[in-house]
Each structure stands twice: as C-alpha cells, then as structure tokens.
Hints:
The structure is a single chain. The protein is mainly alpha-helical. The chain has one domain. Helix content is 70%, strand content 5%. It is built from 7 helices and 3 strands. The protein has helices at residues 3-24, 31-34, 36-52, 60-83, 91-100, 119-142, 151-177; strands at 27-28, 85-88, 114-117. Strands 1-3-2 form a 3-stranded antiparallel β-sheet. The termini are far apart.
Amino acid sequence: MSIQLVSNAIIIVALVVFVGYRQMTWRAVDPARMWRLPIILGIVGVATLGSMTKVSQITGVDLGVLLVELVISLGLGALMGAIAIIRPLTDDGIRLYREAHVGDRRQGSANVTFETRTGWLGMVLWLVLIGMRVGIDFLASAAGSTLAASTGVILLMVAANRIARVGIIVYRTGRIAAPVRI
Length: 182
C-alpha cells in the first residue's frame, strides 16, 4: 500500500463521518459559517494539487475525469441543498445559538433564524458521491489518469459538493425570509 492510498482512505473516512454527522443533525443556517468548510477544502485541495502535479503531466483523460467529477459533485450538492429541510429556529434556538457565539463579530451571526438538515436522504446522496468518487477513481486509473487519484482532487470534489449545497440552502432561506410584496 502506498502512503497516498492510505492518506486518501483516512481522508475519505474522516470526511464521510464528519459530513455524515452534519447531514443528520440540525444546523443553524449561518452563511458566514457554512461557507467556511468548502472554502478551506477548496484551498487545501488546490494547494495539494499544485504541490504534487506539474501542468505538463496533465492529460486529456485527467481533464475529462475532473470535469465529469466536478459536474456530478456540483449536481449532487445542489440536490442535497434542494432536499434539505429548513425550519425556523424557535426563540430558544435563536437565544442558544447567539449565546454560543458571544463575541463573534462576523456579520450575519446575530440574524440566524433558520436551521437545516438533509437527513437520511442527504446521507444516501453523500454515500452516492463517495461511491461515485471511488468508481471514477478506479476507472480513471485503468484509463491511465494519475491526477484523479490524488488527495487534492478528492478535496476539490468535496468542496464543490459543499459549495453547491450551501449555495442552494442560502438561496432558499433568503427566499423564505424575503418579505412578500404585493
């Protein structure tokens, strides 16, 4: 077993557990906090790719695989955002959330009025994403792609999934909170 294979397995297991837990629990819709994980994963993914890959070594197969994975990751993320259950926070929920973030100076934290989760269906979609990632990795390796199996690509695909999910949830809560104009 190579060190990259072991590190990829550890990253996948950690992400499955972490994101799976978050899919199942009610989380406050706080855009400032929700965007943090996808942005960090994206930056680390790009940095990892940049340090491991030379542009001259990227093939057409690599680019094709990346494009297919990106489209699937974004699509599944958008679907997760669309099926997410959004509910208003109770007065206690708002109070508890604000107390937990005392001293938090980011704008938006004080205006949290919704919470969301995707539940079991979101968990199934998350597992589909992981299965798709493993399947594409296997097929890409057989086709000669070395880039598809890299840790950076794994992180980028998870970041793309989370970006699409957060974008849809933020959009939906914005529409719910917007006053009706007649």
